[in-house]
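--- STAGE predict ---
source: upstream dedup step, 1 unique chain passed
mode: sequence only
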Amino acid sequence: MGHGHDHSHHDMDTSGGDLPEALDLSVPETELSPGDRSRRRFLLGAGLLGAGAAASVLARPGAAEAAGLSHTHGPVGGGTGKGGFQWLSGDHHIHTQYSSDAQYRVLDQAQKGHAYGLDWIVITDHGSAAHAKIGVEKVNPDIVKTREELKGLLTFQGLEWNIPAAEHATVFVTPSKNEVSVLKQFENAYDGTFAPSTNTAAQNEALAIAGIKFLGEQVRKRKIDGALFFANHPARRGIDSPHEIRGWRDADPSVAVGFEGAPGHQAAGIPAPNGRGGARGYYDNNPSAASFPGYPLESYRTWGGFDWMTSTVGGLWDSLLAEGKAWWITVNSDSHVNYLDQTERGPGSDFNANGKYNDPVYNGSINTQAGDFWPGFYGRTNVGASSFGYKAVVDGLRAGRVWVDHGRLIKGLDARVRVAGDRRGFTGTPLGGVLQVKRGTSTELTLEIDLQDIPNWAGFVPALKRVDVIVGTVTGPVGDRDTFTTPNTRVVKSFEVSRTSGKVSFTYSLGRLDKPFYLRVRGTDGNRTQPGLMGASVDPYGPQLDVAGAADPWGDLWFYTNPIWVLPR
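--- STAGE serialize ---
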């Protein structure tokens, strides 16, 4: 949707990951201004600060957004009367010649991503012995140069963390003079590559927790303005157990904020002979000795291109949301080697010696076996930001102001929850927010979608056919932290879409508030649906299980939003 104008909203200042003094309990009350002192006492009295607060959406980190107070009903609900946020599209999972299984320059990925409509990207080369030794430093000049050459693109430096005892994760930081030192220290101390072989699973899980806490400390020490963690392809191998995911989030909710709702590698599903003829996302695994034994076999496949943890209504993601945990989804490319590209790694490359491959060269051979798309070519993570800037993107991601889509299914989306009948423009509570109202108050969802009217990068105009509203009861912390279902979440309303251009608007009554709940929204081109894993009464027209060898990503498009909570005051 471009950069447009800077529609700043009026959330209380979150200063990136740096807590305002009122919320930073390490600052003595005697050093606070009278206003901050009053604010802290109010938050403490409401149970929004201090021990145990991390279990609640009301204590989301980042300041008042963390406390949900910036999203209460009224003019501070997010956005402005003229239109809300500046939506910035991005990709937080991209590899370069500094990864042992990739090949492109930083500038190659950045130029293509920008050309395909992205506003921000994160370079996330694999954590490894070579990368930890020299890779973080060696890629940084390329990233700095890219920032200078492409000022219309925000280029973050990060890495793909080998989470001890688990899968991979994107870790990235805001640009600063300390970005290299923080990432290098983090990788050398906490990457699973270096975990002692004698470690038990419990020791490795504790190391992962310590790594997340380390990143939060760097923010609090003001080494960097912000650091974020997203678990990558979480269900691919079945080794990200539910209790580990909860543990990451609770270790520091200002850092560990979500997981990939859909993996990259979507081109891997293009049927032969035009493509690899494999599984979308390379989700073609089976349980191993390291896998969490409770996960069903269906979890090792994608559903409409999305990870089972996200696509199952009433499944693992919903079980986190029903606890009140702020946990967000994203999509990305995981670009290593791209479909239909005509280059290869430069001759004479010695990755082990140099920590990188030589610049790619043209070989004239069209690669139909690659499993990846260029950044921005297929999937987008759309962030509601207050401005075009690094900190604004991090703040938007941390706040959960995010919706995602594949294949440019739609152009834009604005979802709000408000007191029923409120007609004051863009004053409702946006994605990621918390609306607090008195019990018995009627609320409603308002949804405005800009339909797609220009071809996507495959050359056709996608058509949105159905939008689903999903609602779940907030039941509080679970007794068993390996829980991955919740019984009170279901599709409550489906809207059929007949228009093919312009905007469509929907309003759905959420009734009178009697118990806390959350909602989220998804939409589809309607090409492939089936009842969800929890049954037709929970999800009558969910995404279909993707079949390896017959999984054309362009013929099965979905969008998903992050949640909004409604809680009694």
